[in-house]
Amino acid sequence: MNPSTFRLISIDLDETVWPCKPVIEAAEQALYAWLSRNAPRLIESHDVLTMRTHRRELMRRQPGIAHDVSSVRRASLRELLAECGYAESLADEAMAVFMANRNRVEPFVDAVPGLWPLRQRYCLVSVTNGNSDPEQTPLKGIFHYSLTAADVGAAKPEPALFEMAMALADAAPAETLHVGDDPWVDVEAARRIGLTAIWVNRAARPWPVELQPPAAEIPDLIQLQTWLTEKRGGL
Fold it and tell me: What is the DSSP string of 169-210?
């Protein structure tokens, strides 16, 4: 590992750059409110939890789209709407409502000041298994590229997201640093293909004993700057 050779920093989004659970819950509540006005028969049969169960069942039935959370949600809505006598096309309107709210994220306070200075020296690429669009959030303009599992056809820990990020940045594994919150899906998955990986541990969780430690453990993204500065002698 030689931080002075890094050209690319790939960065996970959910729970690394912003909290995920609150925004998903708010988006699902907004969707449910919209459905109550536009598809009341569906609401008579389903609540948020049973709709979530339906999506999980659909992923088992259609594993080919399981990596694409938007396609899963849209397909589930189409099925549920059709069962209740509504046009399947209503699912597209429902998805527009969900996505508008899905992108109403509130980044961690360290996200923008932690990442913005890095853009000047490194190629920054967001890589997520989710479906958020950083350009529709307060992080607009920070990432040079933003990739989702749907874009590359596979979710982490499969290597496709990392590989596409490296292709876009014309960077080799030895020139790539990955930053994420999940020990397995981020850190171990990245290391498996030769990347250096840093663990963002905001909640002071214990590192899994069965894994080798990450290159570094940091509590926030300001400390990512600090780590890079210390390792290479300045940004």
Answer: HT--GGGEEEEES-IIIIIIHHHHTT-EEEEE-TT-PPPPTT
pLDDT at residue number 2: 59
**Which of 143, 233, 232, 155 has the alpha carbon at shortest distance from 196?**
232
DSSP 3-state of 123: strand
Task: Cite the DSSP H helix spans in 103-159.
Answer: 111-115, 149-152
Residues 197, 63: Cα–Cα separation, whole Å: 29
Tokens in use for 204?
A: 């002071």
Inform me whether the pLDDT recorded for 1 exceeds 70: no
Higher pLDDT, 233 or 113: 113
- Calpha distance 137→128 (Å, rounded): 15
Share of the chain above pLDDT 90, in %: 95
Q: Is 136 helix (H, G, I), strand (E, B) or coil?
A: helix
Average per-residue pLDDT for the chain: 95
Structural domains in the chain, CATH included, are 3-19+106-232 (3.40.50.1000), 21-102 (1.20.120.1600)
| Total residues found in the chain within this entry | 235
Helix-helix angle 48-61:21-38, to 10 degrees: 100
pLDDT in tens, 59-105: 999 999 999 999 999 999 999 999 999 999 999 999 999 999 999 99
